[in-house]
Amino acid sequence: MREIIEIDFREVNSSDMMLLYEWANDPITRAMSFNTTIISKTEHEKWFEKSLHSKNLYLFIIEINELNLPVGLIRIDEEGLLGISIDKQFRGLGLGSEILKKFIKYIKINNYIPKIEKIIALIKSENKASIVSFERAGFVEKGYSYFKGQACLNYHYSLR
Ligand SMILES: CC(C)(COP(=O)(O)OP(=O)(O)OC[C@H]1O[C@@H](n2cnc3c(N)ncnc32)[C@H](O)[C@@H]1OP(=O)(O)O)[C@@H](O)C(=O)NCCC(=O)NCCS
After folding, report:
1. Whose CA is nearest to atom 13 of ligand 1?
2. Element spanning 102, H or E
3. Is 157 part of any domain?
4. Structural domains of the chain, count
């Protein structure tokens, strides 16, 4: 399946607010985040407005095939911290690692965040699907650290 899927990215725009709200409150996504509480619509709206105009954070919709079907979100900040979530209907296909590989090429080609030397992912140790996806995409484990008071595995991808 993954061989025949075309993956592309586009920047998030104002029409994506509700889609991102739905994805943000997906139970697995919340459980694998560092803030596990359900996000209210007001909270989301505030975050979305701020993020849309932020110069430090880049949000991309992951699209597949010629239908430009939105299947997930990738975020990366100016320090190279990356987060990914895939719509629950498209999980379990091994798309995560293919998306990450393609995204690394995409940010290089489009010269997004030229100053960062590495991409960083902070992953809860129980998030096996994520660990496998990042490892397959070439990220290297750099041990544990604490983020928002919680232990997490650090994965790095060197861009130099
Ligand atoms: C993380 C995420 C992007 C991975 O997406 P995915 O590509 O659909 O992942 P898959 O379910 O296909 O799993 C990838 C691989 O991990 C393996 N895997 C999954 N759960 C596993 C487990 N408990 N133990 C061992 N391997 C496991 C799968 O078998 C698969 O390998 P295979 O292709 O050889 O079968 C997706 O699960 C997601 O969006 N999760 C919610 C948000 C999230 O956790 N984001 C990451 C935060 S760091």
Report:
1. 129
2. helix 95-109
3. no
4. 1
CATH code (residue 31): 3.40.630.30
77-101 average pLDDT score? 97
Tell me the pLDDT tens digit for each residue of 52-75: 999 999 999 999 988 899 999 999
CB 5 within 8 A of CB 64: yes
Q: What is the pLDDT of residues 141-152, one digit of tens each?
A: 999 999 999 999
| Residue whose CA lies nearest to ligand 1 atom number 15 | 129
Residues with CB under 6 Å of ligand 1 are 28-29, 32, 83-86, 91-96, 121, 123, 127-130, 132-133
Strand order in the sheet with 69-77: 7-11, 57-64, 69-77, 82-86
92 CA to centre of ligand 1 in angstroms: 6
User: Range of 37's domain?
Assistant: 2-115
pLDDT of residue 1: 52
